[in-house]
Amino acid sequence: MAAPERSPALRCEAVRKAFGRFVAVNDVSLDVAPGEIFGLLGPNGAGKTTLIHCVAGLARQTSGRISVFGHDTVSDFRQTRRMVGLVPQEINFDPFFTPLESLLIQMGLMGVEPDRDKAEALLATFSLSSHRHAYTRHLSGGMKRRLLIAKALVHDPKLLFLDEPTAGVDVELRHELWDEVERLRAQGTTIVLTTHYIEEAQHLADRIGIIHRGRLLVVDDRDELLLRHEGRSLEQIFLSHIHGADAHAAAQ
Amino acid sequence: MNRVGLRTLFLKEVRRFSKVWGQTVLSPLITNSLYFLVFGAALGSRLRDVGGVPYIEYVVPGLIMLSMIRNSFLNTSSSLFQSKVNGTVIDILVAPLGVREILLAYVSAAVLRAVIVGCLVYGVARAFTDIGAAHPLWTFTYGAGVATAFALFGIVVALWAEKYDHLAVFPNFILTPLIFLGGVFYSITMLPAPWDLVSRLNPVLYLVNGMRYGLLGASDVAPWEAAAVLVVTLGVAGALSTALLARGYNLRA
User: Fold this and answer.
1) Site from A68, A80, A96 to mutate, B interface, most B CB atoms within 10 angstroms
2) Helix (H) / strand (E) containing A208
3) Which ipTM score applies to this complex?
4) What's the pTM value of the predicted model, to 2 decimals?
């Protein structure tokens, strides 16, 4: 199915995801433009990961519609999944395979002919070349995290989700990852980043969304957001929205 | 259809069981060699023929079927369940793979493992006995069909299971009793009434005897009965696994 021209990289229309009576994502509507870095901020359990999982195919929204570059993620899932890359929050690894094998396998699963040169290049980009034949279980936490990012890039996704990619990694690696994000942005990759580190969002994101209790409280250009709340840091703005929403919920 | 993805997932599953060949291939080989030593060299002269067939030959089809069923079931169930537990199932869920490709890849790899093990057990049996193959094409097709059904049941159990204990329920408490009471080691003609008739309620009896017909040319049930039970078993396993996978049962939130 042909996508309309100038489609947003990601469009969520009234997306709702409920687990029984618990509503994890509540009526979220959002557009992310091609080529931008969108920072999705929210406290634990806000619904960030659930929303991302609905886009990537790890969860199904209860209602609402999600499209990636104009293609519906349910009816046209093969097309959207070829365009989406996901770096999950939790580290996972297959104990049977080495980093090189893992990348080649992931390429194939994504429908791309396994290409050893490309896999080697990704290993080099993420400083994993010397561990290409090691069992993944023997890698350090930081290396496993880098391997997850490399796996998400094997098919050159147009839309990349980084779900707290720097959680628990040291400062050096965090800055390396930021550089990699900047490089991907320069290549035109659209990136949706969730993070607990406000300075990370402030450093990388073009636009910021704040989600709390499943609801998207605010979506704004980073610079305009800071300008509008002159004299306040992004962390202070974030907290004021969260506390405001909590007070509103308590009053109701 | 994502042909590259299907091929990759199939090869990944084959490499997974190849990497632990001692556990997946060598282990059933040793177990069955022990059966043949016990029933052949040690007890063979004391055991009566069954329907004119030496006892050691009579048990061969059942032992082959036992190995094929266990290996096909364990291949899909352990692989899919482990990927659920260690989180790598995400790699498949985010890929542009439909239910058909996922099932076909997992089941094909499991059937390949079962056929390899079945051939090896047959090879060992040939070393200990004079067994041939009365209907080779039937034997191969029937064995692969049964392996397909139990590979599909493996998918169902892996989807349902939430802890390792659950994974053991089907092979230990359902499959093993059905196999051992399914005429692997005896003919139901040896059983007193009403147990010969009760045994006929056990579907595995038909599957074991289907293989027995293929190798020995004779069995406790008619070939069409064995074929019918296989078709029904395949239908149930296929429908259940397809429905659960399509729903993303215990996979997708």
Assistant:
1) A96
2) strand A207-212
3) 0.91
4) 0.92
